[in-house]
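Team,

Forwarding the record for the chain on the shared tracking sheet. I've put the sequence and predicted structure together so nobody has to dig through attachments.
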Amino acid sequence: MKAAVLTDDRTISIQHRPEPRIQENEVLLRSRHAGICGTDIHVYRGEFKGRVSYPAVLGHEFGGVIEETGRAVKGFRAGDRVVVDPILSCHSCPACLSGHINACRTLKLLGIDIDGGFGELVAVPQDRLFRLPDNIPTLNAPMLELYAVGHHILSRGHVQVGETVAILGAGRLGLSILDVLCHSAGPARTFVTDFQPFRLEAAKLLGADETIDISQADPVKRILEKTEGVGVDCVIEAVGHYHSFPDQEPPLSQAVKMVRNGGRIVTAGLGEQTTAVHFKTLVLKEAELIASRVTLGEFPRAIHLMSKGLLHPELLISRELPIGQAGEAFAELDHEPPDTLKVVLNVAQW
């Protein structure tokens, strides 16, 4: 089979690879569309050394058509259109045994630790599959992983109907959270911060009440002004690697200052940098600081919302490119073009 293979830092080539052999509880999936995630860019840059070894077939946001089923597989058959939840947990560590499988000590992801959707064929355990409704094209399937992550983040933050929420960062993750928030959770008011006008405009289209260009204004001061000094019920940090602006603190430090007393902060960005946090302020507010990682059973909700037309993948998918152009796509995204959000690769086009 053909695959887009990461062979070294910032080096992707199209290669022939052996076809995967499926176990009795797995299906052989023909990948149709796979998204390029922010995590994929970090892997591409060599930031996952020690976890991802070369050659690697990335692609953990993907969907396709079942080619073959193992003899123990039930409920699926060849020809079914499906989307993949890429999480592979051990089911035996303390986290897994307590139902917290996304915090598994040895967590692996298809497309990160094991060959994924950037290859023509992928071996996928049956319990990682969800059927795609007829009205969801496989082009939109990669967005379901991001929307499921958005659901999980909002769940971790205990966001309730009618609350005020600030999302720091209007990238792929931040906008996916916003889409789920505005069209399922019913917030009273949403704030979104970023420094790219294109992303802030996308946030407005998705339903953000207030957007704040952090290159022009201090987001802490602006949000406290807009909430009459109270702060927001929940702050979601979706920045990861951040850009510094004069007289502004890192996003997590900002979050501590803009959350209300007794509020919640959810951090989901995967930045490598360390951040000083005002713990005295956090303690005096008795605010909660919560981490969120991948998903925990939220795929069905994301699929249901998308099938009902309540989510807007067309606003987040900037381009569809042939998988044969994977190298060029990654090289472009490595420079963080301001007018690009999600790039989806068509794995049927080489």
